Amino acid sequence: MKRVVVVLAFALVIAKAVAAARLGLFGDEAFYWQCAQRLDWAYADHPFMTAALVRIGTTLFGDTTFGVRFAFLALGALMPWLLWRLARPLVGEGDGVAAVGIGLVSLGLTFHGVLAIPDTPLQVFTLAALVAAQAAARDGTRRMWLLAGACGALALATHLRAVLLPAAFALFLIATRGGRAQLRTAAPWLGLLVLLPGFLPVLIHNMQLDWEPLRYQGQGRHGEGFSWNGLVEHVLGQIAVTSGLLWFGYLAAFVTAWRRARGGDLAAALAIAFVVTHIGPFLVLSPITDREHTTVLWSAVGFLALVPYVVPALRAFAARGASALRRAVAFALPACAASVVVVAMFELSTNALGIDAFVDPFAGWDETADATRQRLQPAPSGGRPIVVADHYKLGAQLEFYLHDQADVFVLDHPKNREHGRQSQYALWRRGESGLAARAGADALVVWERSETSSKERKLRRRTVLAWFDATTELGELVQQVGDSRRQFKFFAGSRLLAVPKPIATTDLGTDGDEADK
Q1: 373 and 343 within one domain
Q2: β 484-496/443-448 pair status
Q3: Domain boundary residue among 284, 318, 350?
Q4: Could you tell me the pTM of the whole model?
Q5: Which residue, of 305, 328, 350, is where some domain finishes?
Q6: Of 111, 107, 83, which Cα lies nearest the Cα of 13?
Q7: Mean pLDDT per segment of 10 residues, for the chain of length 517 residues?
Q8: What's the sign of the alpha-carbon dihedral 379, 381, 384, 388?
Q9: 504 in helix, strand or coil?
């Protein structure tokens, strides 16, 4: 078993490295690359850690997709070792090795490291904190609580969702007899003191922006009303995160941990507290959550605490009644999960199966940047030409590919506000306020023709072009990326205005599509 797990771990690292090198960046990754060019305490929707990791990778390997993702790949490679450190003291040597295998075939835990997203460092630092806290739960040592606090501080410096980690510790310490006994010592309080500085980057940044990022996190990610469909979609998403049938193994692991916790097992009690705080809130809020601005991966970290208990739970299930069918089911759950992970990683690294959903978000942006580059004209002053992008995802991709050839500005757009990133471009002076400061200059405008109504497209096109005294269309680029169709139009904008011209809206409801004329 140990040899199989080690081979699987190395194979996954290689597959993720290949995928990291061959896949283009998707919109959020390109935005994090922009953040890495402008290091700060925190950014519109996350603290500094993600940008710092991108900066480390690009310093070592240049502004390439592999460079952007390298540090995340390296952190993700630590997951098997951390899972081993978590599981071995709880379930023993043999089941500890098997637990690492369970983690490796759980898609939500294996996938991280391929992409430059906050979930990877958040998961690694949270798991490290959990390993230390489990040791502290067993013996209450000051050293382990300090280590748990330090890892928790790193998690808080990665994403706001890390507040669930101290919440889990607090629930454990308050709700269990052994935890309350530890609260009467200095050890957990010292751990808290070490953890608290992790809040500082977010606090400093929010004070600079009048708390707008926190308001977005508290309000902008919720839907307009209650819907049971959100709950159903969330549960189905959790099944996907755990590679399908293995979700039932995690459910059995929760029952196993619960029974042990009821019997006085403090380590199991901490695992239950971790699950309640990291999975429970997303489950409860799923009926009112805006699915466009949340992801099922957010609660994947909650399954970490259950990984050690999956194998004992499946063994107990198989032994009950000594049924051949039960043994087959217990074997089938991780076997099917392994198949899902193998297919997913093989497709990400090769695209040999042609599954569009795996590659659509990453494809085509280099072609868009090439089309933009071909239309660039030298700035009269000898400086860099100006590119005006319609929205932040387009602007981030263009700056990644053109960062040393043009100054890219991003216009205000509903996408920017919906993803909480409008304020960031204003802070960088790469939004409309920064663009207005370049009044009188010429620019290349790149506008994405979105799949909205004809009236909305006309209004958006006029809004974009109203920033110039005159514009000339320079052609278009149409991409068919899997099932997705993207269309970009290019305009030469003459004499940028400090204030955009008023927009005529009287004929927006007429037949035809102005964008196609």
Answers
A1: no
A2: antiparallel
A3: 350
A4: 0.91
A5: 350
A6: 111
A7: 90 93 91 95 89 97 96 95 95 93 91 89 96 90 94 95 94 95 94 93 78 66 68 88 92 96 94 95 81 72 94 91 84 92 88 76 89 90 88 94 92 85 90 93 90 79 91 91 84 93 70 47
A8: negative
A9: coil
